[in-house]
Amino acid sequence: MPKSRIRKKADFTPPPATKQATAIKLTNRSWVAPVMLALFLLGLAWIVLFYVTDGSLPLDSIGDWNIVVGFAFIAAGFGVSTQWK
User: Fold this and answer.
1) 77, 41 in Cβ contact below 8 A?
2) How far apart are CA 39 and CA 53, in angstroms?
3) Euclidean distance between CA atoms 81 and 85, whole angstroms
4) Does pTM top 0.90 for this prediction?
5) Which residue, 85, 79, 74, is CA-closest to 30?
């Protein structure tokens, strides 16, 4: 049986780049760390104050929802932390 011809494939050459790479502009985010830490500490202080005073502080009128408020401050701190570069 005769051998078939071997076809040579052309090597891949990428198309020429038409766009220049743009530099990433990082803005000054020096406010993120202090705000993040402040929210963490505020949430922690809110929860600790609620437990230490047996529920009479910081807001007696909302009762056990004070824990939710404290965790909301902590969650906001995590939300702010996503802005840190």
Assistant:
1) no
2) 21
3) 9
4) no
5) 85
**Contacts of 75 by beta carbon, 8 Å cutoff, 6+ apart:** 43
**Do 46 and 66 form a contact (C-beta atoms < 8 A)?**
yes
Residue 84 neighbours by CB under 8 Å, 6+ apart:
29, 32, 33, 36
User: CB–CB of 46/75 below 8 Å?
Assistant: no
Q: What parts of the chain have a pLDDT lower than 70?
A: 21, 24-26
Closest alpha carbon to 45 in 85, 30, 37 = 37
Whether 36 and 84 have beta carbons less than 8 Å apart is answered as: yes
pLDDT for 24: 66
DSSP character at residue 26: -
Q: Based on C-alpha coordinates, what's the Rg of the chain?
A: 30
